[in-house]
Amino acid sequence: MLLFLEAGFETPATGVAWLIHIISKHPQVQQKIKAELMSTGGNTQELSIERLDSLVYLDRVVNEVLRLAPPVDGASRTLTADDCLPDSGTQLYKGDEVFIPLHTLAHDTRLWSIDPQLFCPERFLDEDKKRNPYAFIPFGSGHRQCVGQDLARFEMKVIAARLMQYVTFGDGGPEVNAGGHVTSLTVMPKHVGVTIQFD
Ligand code: HEM
């Protein structure tokens, strides 16, 4: 239970902080989310499961936030048997700990067609749809992958949709909204300063 609280509290909160920081610098992305909300329900404020499911552009935005700024930057595995890496032939031994750099994979130019430094939700629709399956694993992979990932995506999507129904975020300027990062349990944005306009 404690693990669930520890693993499940800060992570989506960090994801939402990154989302607000990033979309504040991309007004056109906010306009597209708002347009999608209008086209799927007009002025109604209700966010049913069906309506949330139909917000496919918002899914791409959440994915792109998790790719550009993954709240967890790595996972690790301990080898239970000797093995070697397929391409390089590097020998690994039982008991070795291997670090899987989730952030690095998500920013490796060899694995992405569209510049991975760019915030581009459309990449999940276009060129990068057929990417290497391990290029984007913000919740890890395999049988120890994050058990809370559906809940986390749902939380981020509901919060983003609700916010976009009521407000538009503006960039608070190069210093207060400088981003950067600070690492504790998660990798959080260091400087988030946005303006909030009520629509
Ligand atoms: C954006 C939010 C989240 C991110 C980025 C995230 C990321 C991760 C990552 C990278 C791992 C390690 C996976 C691996 O080793 O392959 C993990 C494990 C875990 N996560 Fe999440 N997580 C998030 C939200 C949540 C939530 C909401 C919960 C629970 C309510 C949760 C519960 C757990 C648990 C219990 C584990 C350990 C699983 C195991 O060892 O079998 N996480 N998470």
UniProtKB/TrEMBL annotation:
Organism: Rotaria magnacalcarata
Descriptive protein name: Cytochrome P450
InterPro entries xref list: Cyt_P450, Cyt_P450_CS, Cyt_P450_E_grp-I, Cyt_P450_sf, Insect_CytP450_Detox
Entry keyword annotation includes Cytoplasm: no
Entry's family note: Belongs to the cytochrome P450 family.
Keywords per UniProt: Heme, Iron, Metal-binding, Monooxygenase, Oxidoreductase
Gene Ontology molecular function: any one: oxidoreductase activity, acting on paired donors, with incorporation or reduction of molecular oxygen
SUPFAM superfamilies: Cytochrome P450 (SSF48264)
